[in-house]
Amino acid sequence: MSISYVIIPARFASTRLPRKLLLRQTGKSLIQHTYESAQRARRPIGICVATDHEDIFREVQSFGGNVVMTNPAAPSGTDRVAEVARQLNNADIIVNLQGDEPDLSGDSIDLVIKLLEDDSAAVMATLAAPIRSRRQWEDPACVKVVFDHCGRALYFSRSPIPYPRQCDDGLFSLDPPVFYQHVGIYAYRRDFLLKLTALPPSPLENLEKLEQLRVLQAGYSILIGVVDQSTFGIDTPEDYQKFVEKYQKQHSLHS
Fold it and tell me: For the chain, is the Cβ count within 10 Å smaller at the N or the C terminus?
């Protein structure tokens, strides 16, 4: 069994939803919800929040979580994750879990780790879930992925891919599914993660603003694991309200 860690990059600044990781309408901060989701995974031996701000640092400490201050000038969450990974000399696999993904299951984290454990030649893995509506498929905020028969990513895009010559709504209910949404969690071999952050952004990455395209353009493979349903990251006030309502409904059912 490999030694794996979950690192949660937690940037304070958020344009569309200020201080979002510290919002606590449920009684817990958003970063605490995400941390507790990560704790449900069985394969990682540790979890750490990598933040750039004292307020998030203090919040994670307040609920007993592990947290590290990282360089405020880090260009991306991946760089923040790599900064912590450099100190984890015993780690084989590093999982990058976004701080605004409170609904991601422990099983999903375990799956993305298992993909790398089962394929010693692979350096990176992520997840995908079926797209079942045309609206979601056409939404640029929904990142699509196509992959080969061996589960290796062919391309990620904000555009609708694959694009049928004759599009019919019936395509969205086919089984196996035709369209897949990328689920924003990554597992990397530690040495590859450190190498990745040293690579310059690629032309396709700059065009689509999708960091995973740097990996594909550099000639590396990304394994794709399929889960039944996607989770959604919280980017807007509307997203957060949906999360709060869902949480309160589940809480009332169990109380």
Answer: C
Tokens representing 249? 């409904």
Distance CA 44, CA 63 (A): 19
85-96: buried (b, 16+ CB within 10 Å) or exposed (e) per residue? Answer: beebeebbbbbb
3-state helix, strand, coil in the chain (%, to 5): 35, 20, 45
Decide: 95 and 6 in contact? Cβ < 8 Å: yes
pLDDT tens by residue, the chain, 255 residues: 789 999 999 999 877 788 999 999 999 999 999 999 999 999 999 999 999 999 999 999 999 999 999 999 998 899 999 999 999 999 999 999 999 999 999 999 999 999 999 999 999 999 999 999 999 999 998 999 999 999 999 999 999 999 999 989 999 999 999 999 999 899 999 999 999 999 999 999 999 999 999 999 999 999 999 999 888 789 889 999 999 999 998 877 665
Domain count, the chain: 1
Domain harbouring 120, CATH code: 3.90.550.10
